[in-house]
Amino acid sequence: MGIDPGLTRCGLGVVEGSIGRPLTLIDVNVIRTSADVPIAQRLVTIEKGIDAWLDEHRPDAVAVERVFARSDSSTIMGTAQASGIALVAAARRGLPIATHTPSEVKAAVSGSGRADKAQVGAMVTRILRLDAPPKPADAADALALAITHIWRGGAQARIDAALAVQRLAGRTR
To answer: Among the options 56, 60, 65, 104, which is catalytic?
Structure first.
């Protein structure tokens, strides 16, 4: 499951598949909150939405976009708050969690870490064999996160497992 955190729009996407095999869209949506509502209540809405998706789809892992610095600090704060909600919701369930930067996601799905939203949407459409790009862009970004995690996270999980075995072997000598 990929989560593109945001206070106004939080993208959620579930993709099924594995490295070297075609990926399949399971579901995609966006949780929306209004700027007219107090931040605490907006975060509760996001938490309830993410919890419902985790309960419904029971993903094997959750990938969340890593918050990065932008010039608009109010955007950073809202994104960071929504990201924290996503991380806590997944951690409560004991799910493996990964964070990926926007440039990592863009590079994974398009080949360029500088791809724009339209390019990411077009590649998500192609990779998942969809008729049209998911709208809004937050939905496509959530799917791109899920795709990135399948492609990169699976490989990283195997590396981490091999390193853990190696550490254990070193302790028994």
So the answer is: 65
Residue among 36, 56, 138, 141 flagged as catalytic: 138
pTM equals 0.88
Distances (CA, A) of 103 to 23, 114, 125, 139, 163: 21, 6, 19, 17, 26
Name the DSSP letter for residue 25: E
Active site residue 4: yes
Question: For the chain, first and last CA: distance in Å?
Answer: 39
pLDDT band at 167 (very low <50, low <70, confident <90, very high): confident
The structure tokens listed for 61 are 């892992």
Question: What pLDDT shows up at residue 41?
Answer: 98
- The pLDDT tens digits for 73-84 are 767 899 999 999
138 is catalytic: yes
